[in-house]
Amino acid sequence: MSDNEKIEEILSRGVVKIYPSKEALEKVLRSGKRIRLYLGIDPSNPQLHLGHTVVLKKLREFQNLGHEVILLVGDFTGRIGDPTDKTSMRKKLTHKEVLENAKTYQNQAEKVVKFDGKNPVKLKFNSEWLDKLTFNEIAELATFFTVQQFLERDMYQKRIKEGKPIGLHEFLYPLMQAYDSVAMDVNMEIGGNDQTFNMLVGRELVKSKLGREKFVITVPLLLGTDGQKMGKSLGNYIPLTDSANDIYGKIMSLHDDLVYQYFELCTLFPLQSIKSLEKELNPMDLKKRLAFEIVKMYHSEKEAQKAQKEFEKVFQNKGLPSNMETISCSSKNQNIIDLLVKNNLVSSRSEAKRLIEQGSVDIDEQTIKDFQNPINVKNGSVIHIGKRKFAKINLIG
RNA sequence: GCCAAGAUAGCGAAGUGGUCAAACGCACCUCUCUGUAAAAGAGGAGCCGUAAGGCUUCGGGGGUUCGAAUCCCUCUCUUGGCACCA
User: Fold this and answer.
1) Could you tell me which CATH number the domain at A3-219 has?
2) Which nucleotides on strand B sit less than 7 A from a protein beta carbon?
3) What is the tens place of the pLDDT at every residue in A40-73?
4) Is the CB of A249 under 7 A from strand B?
5) Which of residues 37-66 of A touch strand B (CB under 7 A)?
6) Is the shortest CB-to-strand distance from A319 to strand B under 7 Å?
7) Were both Cys, which of A216, A283, A374, A380 would link to A19 (CB 3.0–4.6 Å)?
8) Do the two domains A3-219 and A232-316 of this chain adopt the same fold?
9) A284 CB inside 7 Å of strand B
10) Secondary structure (H, E, C), chain A
């Protein structure tokens, strides 16, 4: 692929919008100029999930082209709390916690961007300059914007309509984020679609203070595995720290019509190949391919193969997993409820009964229907609860 | 400081004296089916008890009542409006 083709792909794949325009940015990139760009990250939640990788991947592409990439830890802004997620008032992190979180973040992000070798990503903290600002300077920054400009933001409009509060400090947040761009003297910022407003405020400020352009690229927010907005309460995201088997399984639980999007946004698979695969394979096989690719990225090819075999074995062929928990019991005759509760396979006796009544507990392929009669177990018997819980019995004594 | 509204299960949100272990939606769990931990369909969802039944839950505490998520008092917190800002 020529550089120009690369640029074209970078500016179109997994991009929602480029400000001021794709053409303008393209021109700069083609000129061969090395630009400085950054991504801001939130240090209060260092647990990365697949959604975060979309923007990191974009960052990596620019890194590969030789541009200067900064990962900015928002240790200062984190204290204020981005109004974008209003519900959780963040607790103030200590400097030590911030450093630890940043490290955790870095360890996970390392799967996507490089922090070593030539042209490594630089890590910065915005408290470095935001801590030093005086009230005087803050007030001066504020003169560049009007209340109307800020109120135009959808979210605020919505809250006004609903009679919900808007904290004054929430107006300060975009301002601080904007100042980051000035302080680092960047040419570009990349962020999720939800950050558009904040990033554009930065663009304004760079224009006013430095008298030049700051480009902004917004990338799409990855939808959760169920096709809804990814969210904590929905339990529909995939943490990068998940085991290979879990990532594989969670991808397999993806809605069929999200598969292409995940390929596009989460893998390095060439778009053309995805399109042709889409025609060749049935949705399940295509999804398996996707799961494989993603596990490969965050674990290894070997792990991916293992995860795939395991999935086929356990879920497609209803077999037993290769590794399962072992529980010890001392007698052949067991009360099934006691056995489940004692070994923490279920959380309460009521739950155990419920599961048995629903026919979800098997021992050696035999469904347990009655929780009153004692059951017979052998050494090596396998208890299977629901879809995913397995335990092997180790008979002692 | 004053006035008002509100606090219900993981989240959102009904319920305004007994039929409320608490509707509904989302998430969750199970089963059936299948091409998958997909979709679809069916069911479940406090705890203890084989069961009958019992016990603990609707911000905290106290009260009224045969009986309270529901009424009263009080406290805490959230929010809106007003006032103060000499």
Assistant:
1) 3.40.50.620
2) 10-12, 26-32, 35-39, 43-51, 79-80
3) 988 877 788 999 999 999 999 999 999 999 999 9
4) yes
5) none
6) no
7) A216
8) no
9) yes
10) CCHHHHHHHHHHCCCCEEECCHHHHHHHHHCCCCCEEEEEECCCCCCCEHHHHHHHHHHHHHHHCCCEEEEEECCCHHHHCCHHHCCCCCCCCCHHHHHHHHHHHHHHHCCCCCCCCCCCCEEEECHHHHCCCCHHHHHHHHCCCCHHHHHCCHHHHHHHHHCCCCCHHHHHHHHHHHHHHHHHCCCEEEEEHHHHHHHHHHHHHHHHHHCCCCEEEEECCCECCCCCECCHHHCCCCECCCCHHHHHHHHHCCCHHHHHHHHHHHCCCCHHHHHHHHHHCCHHHHHHHHHHHHHHHHCCHHHHHHHHHHHHHHHHCCCCCCCCEEEEECCCEECHHHHHHHCCCCCCHHHHHHHHHCCCEEECCEECCCCCCCEECCCCCEEEECCCEEEEEEECC
**Domain map of chain A by residue range?**
3-219, 232-316, 325-395
pLDDT of residue A1: 73
Does the CB of A282 sit below 7 A from strand B?
yes
* The listed CATH number (1.25.40.10, 3.40.50.150, 3.30.470.20, 3.10.290.10) that belongs to domain A325-395: 3.10.290.10
Is CATH 3.30.70.1140 the right assignment for the domain spanning A232-316? Answer: no
pLDDT digits 0-9 by tens, A87-133 = 334 456 677 888 888 999 999 999 999 999 999 999 999 999 999 99
